[in-house]
Amino acid sequence: MTRFLIRRAAGFVLTLLAVSVVVFAVMSMLPGDPALSILGIEASPEALAAMRSQLGLDAPAPARYAAWALGALKGDFGTSYAFRVPVGGLIAERLPLTLSLALGAMAVTLVLAPGLGMAAAARHGGPGDWAVMVLSQIGIAVPAFWMSILLILLFAVRLGWLPSGGFPGWDQPLAALRALVLPVIALALVQSAVLARVTRSAALEVMRLDFVRTARATGLPRRRILWRHVLPNALIPIVTIIGMQFAAIVTGTVVIESVFSLPGLGRLLLQSIANRDLITVQALVLLFAAIVVTANFLVDLAYVAIDPRLTGRQS
């Protein structure tokens, strides 16, 4: 177990290091001059050279990467070219909204999808199974941004129950929660459709095994068989998808925050791209990549909690 955890932790660190190198290299190769973006096209060559020196852009690439990476370890990602404030402060200011949106969508997904998937598997071939399959197919087919527009038209425009966008701030808790309802649902519906189908397929595979037939033959209630015997043995593919989905939800906030005008990390990323604020884009891309890598690392740990025998297979 200890050896497995050490190997996974080392892989986690090395993956983050590789991601940081790739992100820095890609951002460095993008066209454009940050100094020119800050000073404008009328700036003199001397002023541009001085600004590049101030930003550290005149140093060799390895030196610039080392300085950026060491600063990132301390939470210092540099100063935003567009906002002229520390990038770390921008991220810290907007991170709670994005995390609330992602965690809320993940919670809704975990409440809806496993139950629907298990219900469909228990009624395989019946009307309930077909209903879940049809609804999940619709959920997968409809993009999240289009689902957002439909929700706005129904619940905000026609019914007037919820706001169509904007965020009042956390100093108004009830209003803040109401502002997050529609974006959370828009993110969760698509992911719930995927997870429900995976849960159904995994449960059907387990239900064909001999020990489930034996449990049925002993007269155990179907509900107990499903939740005490089938679901625990179907968790590996389900947990795999959950880890991938959380990463997809976090990165999906880029679109959802734009549709609902939410001041989170996704909207900040789009604003930074539009303003050619490469230092902020670089930090945000690294952060999103780190979240994806962390989700995969936690999935590996969940595998061990579900089935400790996997440590021997994966070490």
TrEMBL record:
GO CC, alphabetical: plasma membrane
Protein localization: Cell membrane
Gene3D superfamilies given in the database record: MetI-like (1.10.3720.10)
Pfam families: BPD_transp_1, BPD_transp_1_N
Family matches, as InterPro entries: BPD_transp_1_N, MetI-like, MetI-like_sf
Predominant cellular place of this UniProt entry's protein: membrane
Membrane topology: Multi-pass membrane protein
Keyword field: Cell membrane, Membrane, Transmembrane, Transmembrane helix, Transport
UniProt GO molecular function: dipeptide transmembrane transporter activity
Domain ABC transmembrane type-1 as annotated: residue spans: 95-299
Transmembrane segments: 12-30, 99-122, 134-157, 177-198, 230-259, 279-306
Entry similarity comment: Belongs to the binding-protein-dependent transport system permease family.
PANTHER family in alphabetical order: DIPEPTIDE TRANSPORT SYSTEM PERMEASE PROTEIN DPPB-RELATED
Name of the protein in question: Peptide/nickel transport system permease protein
